[in-house]
Every structure is written in structure tokens, then in C-alpha cells.
Amino acid sequence: MQPNQELIRTIANRYAANLTLCFPLRRTSLQLARAIHANFITFGFQPRAHILNRLIDVYSKSSELRYARHLFDEIPEPDKIARTTMVSGYSASGDIALAQNIFEETPLSMRDTIMYNAMITGFTHSHDGCSAVSMFREMKREGFRPDNFTFASVLAGLAHVVEEEKECVQFHAAAVKSGAGSITSVMNALVSLYSKCDLLNSARRVFDEITEKDERSWTSMMTGYVKNGFFDSGLELLEGMDEGMKLVAYNALISGYVHRGLHREALEMVRRMVSNGIELDAFTYPSVIRACATSGLLQFGKQVHAYALRRQDFSFHLDNSLVSLYYKCNKLVEARAIFDKMPAKDLVSWNALLSGYVSSGHIGEAKLLFKEMEEKNILTWMIMISGLADNGFGEEGLRLFSCMRKEGFEPCDYAFSGAIKSCAVLGAYCNGQQFHAQLVKIGFDSSLSAGNALITMYAKCGVVEEARRVFITMPCQDSVSWNALIAALGQHGHGAEAVGVYEEMLKEGIKPDRITFLTVLTACSHAGLVDKGREYFDSMETVYCIPPGADHYSRLIDLLCRSGRFTEAESVIKSLPFEPTSQIWEALLSGCRVYGNMELGIIAAEKLFELIPEHDGTYMLLSNMYAATGKWEEAARVRKLMRDRGVKKELACSWIEVETQVHKFLVDDTSHPEAEAVYKYLQELGKEMRRFGYVPDTNFVLHDVESDGHKQDMLITHSEKIAVAFGLMKLPPGRAIRVFKNLRTCGDCHNFFMYLSRVVQREIVLRDRKRFHHFRNGECSCGNFW
């Protein structure tokens, strides 16, 4: 027996010696450990605990935890080392639940400070600060003494959940009392902790007391300054750093500038960094390219791209950032080329290109890419659903939302926002209400994105009171919330209220942005508040340093023209700092149509024929202007020009939701199953309304028809009239009729609905391309100003 035991001991020592070669860990360590493990199995060797522990340690530190666990489970009674190794391995891999299982199964007598440190570190890395602090307190309660690693880990965990200064002070005092208060790693954690609580003076005091500062010391202090917006202090700190540590500091400053929207400052820091001989690295590129993409600085972004190519710096993060840069700068071909050349793609890559397609309106390409994706996450579905809604494909958006649920994805608040936006596009009020109820049930009703989507949805479904109620009950509002409410009130003819909300927004300290001014200018235009609108327009540059764009100028032109102030409108166009765009000429042409200003209208139309010859709206507006004044030959000439150029007129279409089903109607529509009954009902309504004084305005029959009776018959077949009549037939008495139209409603229909609301004693809400009209008791919310 003695010789056999000696042989076994010799073999065991050889295995132990070979396993020693695995440390420190290097690329060949795992391969060597596997070979030794294979030897055990092949020759039936039963290793002792110290050899198994070493092998478990190699597997754990090489992220091969399933092999480590297999060996661990084969040990009848694992010792302290094996248990601690497994706890550390699971914690390091982020599988804190399995780490906790082994920890709780370990008797108190076998636990030690190292095992507690592993658990605290695991909770900290999982951003579970409460559990990290709780484990620290349990450790002390059970009589285990915290060491330097304990305090460094628990302070990092506390930073995730700390709310009061006294908590920082208490843990700082505990670290000092234990003797760990002067250790660099612990002091670094204290700097981060105080910075997280906005206690930068305390953070700086600890930083200055560190006798041997390492890279993390400088990074922690710099990060504290940057995250709290103290860039000047960060720049001052930068000057005192060793050259070898400055790259991390530059990256922190650049990232901080970008995060706060200070893109010019971020790019200036890049220039400074390069001029000082510090090269960009994998952490610099994403921040710099994001700054270029957001600022529209394509040329600078291209220079960064060329710099990366020269240095042969390639990574997922860089390629994904470049895809975003090019699509945000309207260079989809270049974005697709980068995507196609990527040696490997992750979900971020696919989602980035998908975002590019939907945000630029290339829905066809987006659909193809979406189908091509083998793997999708909730973000993929969210991008596609919102993209469909934003581009007017509401029905497809709702179908895709339903498909997402069938695929097993639980919608988040952003996905719900996309579905709610789809309801807004369709005017699907009942569906929108159902989504709102689901949000409340799930607990997403406090979500900012969902709340903003609900405001817009209710507004576009004609229920502005509900939109206002959602805004008031939101736990917090951002500029998007205020913009949505201002837009809602303006669209529904509550111009004075919209202006009041804008003024209230300023008092709340919310800075208006470009979208804010678009909404408030539109509100002023719809309400005829010319002077107030002009005042707001002028304040853009003089007060808020926001240069007006073509869209703002078009709102101003619309505002002036709707009030007949054409001389002022012409003066604004002549003084534009750029060539007038199609938006501006369209605003002028629309105003000319309202006031019959043929001379100026023809000039605007000619400009539009040059800029957007394929757009049907210009031909129709000019033709209608001629027809309204009886100039049928000129109207026919414009329509012939339209035909010769192959321009198709967009068909007028109106729709109404009845019991969650949307019913669509075209002009002179006979395709609906109940068309005959609807037309008969319309004739009866027309007779009743004539008794109240309604006279059909045949000037809005834009065809050369001699018979007045024939003209009246043509008016009665307008799509919005058919939809309203259908709603009156199908919806319960007292319920508001909500109809939606893709084009602007004509003057006769507007007059018709004013009389009809009085006859049937029902509110009629009509959303056309321009705005909402609320007809009640013979009056309209627009005050006949639209």
C-alpha cells in the first residue's frame, strides 16, 4: 500500500505543479487547465481538495463557470476556499442570484471577509446598492472585520442609492475608524460618493488628501466635476495631471460636454487634445461622432472617420456611431455602405440603420431591413412602430404592436408611446383610450414618454380637454410636454389659452426650443393673434439666441397672410437670409387663396412649380382660385399642365371611428355597404337645414357646371359630409361626432356643419389637414378664421 500512496502523492504533486503554471492567468491558462482536467477523467484520478480548488479557480476566472460548478458539485463537502471561489466567480460574472445561493448555503463558521467582499462587490456591480449596504451591515453584525476592499466596494454600492449627506459622512467615518480611510482605493470611492451627492467641496477635500494619487483618483474627481457641470473646475484639474493620465480626463470632459448638449465645446476639446499630441481612442470616438451627428457637422465627422481609418481603429462602437452620423446627416447611402462592410454586426448596428431609415422617411427600406433581421429586441420593435406612426402609417403601426406581443415581447412605455402615436395618426380615439387604460393598469401612466404621446393622441382625436387633463396629472413635464399642450390648444382654436400656457412655461423656467416656437406661432396664426405672434418670432433671436429656420418663417408668413397683411409678408420674404423655400411660398399661396389675391398668388404658384413641380397641392390651389372667380379656362389650363406633367391629385378622404372600427369615405363614394342610406339621410338633413337658413355655396364647386341643382348635388357628396352623416346614424344620441380628413375642408362644408350642429344638437369635430374645427350650436371654434 505504501508504494501506491507514494505514487498517488507524486502524481498529485505533478498536477498541482502544472496547475501552478496557470497563474497568473494568461491566454494559455484555460487550455492547460482543460488538459489537466481531461487527464483526471482519462486515468480515473481522484484529485484532492487543494487541486480541485485550483482547477475551480482557473475555470471561474476564465468565465467557464459551468465547468467550475460541475467540479464544485462533485465535492461531497466543499471547503471555504471552494465556496469563496464560486461566490467570487458568480459575482464577477453578474450572476448574483447563484452567488447568493452558495453564500446562504455556507455555514457562518466557513464564511470570511473575502466571501463577504465578493457578495458586496457583486451587488455593487449589479447596481443593487441597497443589498450591498445590507450585506455590509450583516457582515459587521456577525463579527467580521471589513478591510480596504470591503469599504471600496460598499462605498461604490452606496453611491447608487445615497440620498442624504449624513450617509456619506457616516460611512466615511467608519472607514477612517477601521484604518482604511487613508487607503487610495477607499478614498477614490469616497470622492465618487461625495460627487454623486453633489458635495463637490467634500469630494475635492478627500481628493487633495490622497497622498498617492492613481489614475482612478484623477478620473473620479474629473467625473464628479463633469457630471455636475463644473467644466471650468475640470479644466483646471486637467492642467495638474501627468501627461500619461490625460487621455481619460479628456474623454470624460468630451463625454460630459456632449451629454449636456455642448457639442461645440466638445469638438473644441478634441482639437485641443489632438494638438497636445494625445491620440483619440475607442472611448473618444463615440462621443465625438455623436457631437458631430447632433450638430450636423458632417465634415468634421468625416475627418474623424478618416483619422480612424488611418490608425486602423475598428470596433462595434465606432462603426455603429458612424452609421448614426451619416444617417443623421441625411447620407443614408454612406450609412448603408459602412453597415454592409462591418465584419460583424450586433443588434446595435441593425437598430442604428433601422433608425436611419425610419427617421428619414424611407419606410420601404426600413420594412425590408426589419424582415431581414434574424434577432430583434424590444428597441427594434419600438423603432419600427414609432417610425411607422411618425410617417403616417398608423394602421401598420398598430398591427406591428399586436405582432410584437404575439412574439412574446412585453411592451415597455416607449413601445406603448409608438402605439398611441399610431392612434393619433388614425384619430382612433377608442383604441387610444384602451391603451391609456392598459398603461394605468401596468403602472406606466407616470411615464414621461407615454404621457407626452397621450397628450398628442387626445389632441389629434379632437378631445383637447382630455389632453389638458393628462398634462395636469403628469408627475413631471419636460419641454416636449409643454410643446404638445401648446400645439393641442392651438390646433383646436384656443389660441389665447395656448399663449397663456407658453407664458406659464417661461415662468416655470422651461427654456423654449425650436419646436416651442413652431407651436406657439401656429397657435397665434389660427387665432389671428398677429402682433403677439410677431413678438414671439422676434424674441427667438433677440432673447433666446435661436436663429429662425424656414419652418419658422413660413409660420410667420402664414400668420401675416391669414390676416390679409400681404405687404408685410412680401417684405419678410424679400429680407430672408436665405432663398425662400417651398414652405414659404405655400404659406403665401394659401393666404392669397383665402383673400383672392390672384396677382401675388400666381407669383407664389410659379415659384412652387419651379421648386416642387411634382406636388399636386400647388396646381389644385391655383386652379381652385381661378374656379372660385369663374375663370374656368385658366382653371382648365392649370389642370391640363398638371396632367401633362404626370402629377396625380391626392384624393379627398374622410374617416370616422365607430365601435373601434374605422370607416373611410371618398368623394361621391358608393362603395360603402350603407352608402344609399347615408345619401338619403343627407338629403333629409339638407332640407331641415334650409329651414334654418342654410344655402349651399356653389362657388366651391370647382368644375364648370351650368346647372345650379347639379352643383348642389356635387357639394352634398363631399367625403366629410358623408362621414359625419354616417356618424349621426350610428353613434348614440349626445355623443360627439369626430371626423378626420386628409385635405383642407371647403367653405361650404364648414358652413354646412355649423348649421348641422344646431339642427341635430350635437358637437361635430372635424380635423382637416390644417387644424381642428369644433362645431357647436351653429358656431365653430375657429371663428371662421382658418
What is the mean pLDDT?
88
- Beta-strand content estimate: under 5%
Termini Cα gap:
107 Å
Radius of gyration: 35 Å
Widest β-sheet, arrangement of strands = 2-1-3-4-5-6
Query: Total helix count?
Result: 42
Secondary structural class: mainly alpha
Overall geometry: elongated
Largest sheet, described in full?
6 strands, mixed
The helical percent reads 55-70%
Would you report the number of β strands?
6
InterPro entries: DYW_dom, E_motif, PPR_At4g14850-like_plant, PPR_rpt, TPR-like_helical_dom_sf
Keywords: Repeat
Pfam families: DYW_deaminase, E_motif, PPR, PPR_2
Family: Belongs to the PPR family. PCMP-H subfamily.
Structural features, described:
This is DYW domain-containing protein. By secondary structure, the protein is mainly alpha-helical. The protein is built from 42 helices and six strands. The chain has a six-stranded mixed β-sheet with strand order 2-1-3-4-5-6, with helices on one face. A hairpin with a 4-residue loop joins strand 4 and strand 5. The longest helix is centred in the first third of the chain and has 19 residues, at 2-20.
Write a concise synopsis of the structure shown.
This is DYW domain-containing protein. By secondary structure, the chain is mainly alpha-helical. A 6-stranded mixed sheet has the order 2-1-3-4-5-6, with helices on one face.
Tags for this model:
repeat; PPR_At4g14850-like_plant; DYW domain-containing protein; six-stranded mixed sheet; DYW_dom; TPR-like_helical_dom_sf; mainly alpha
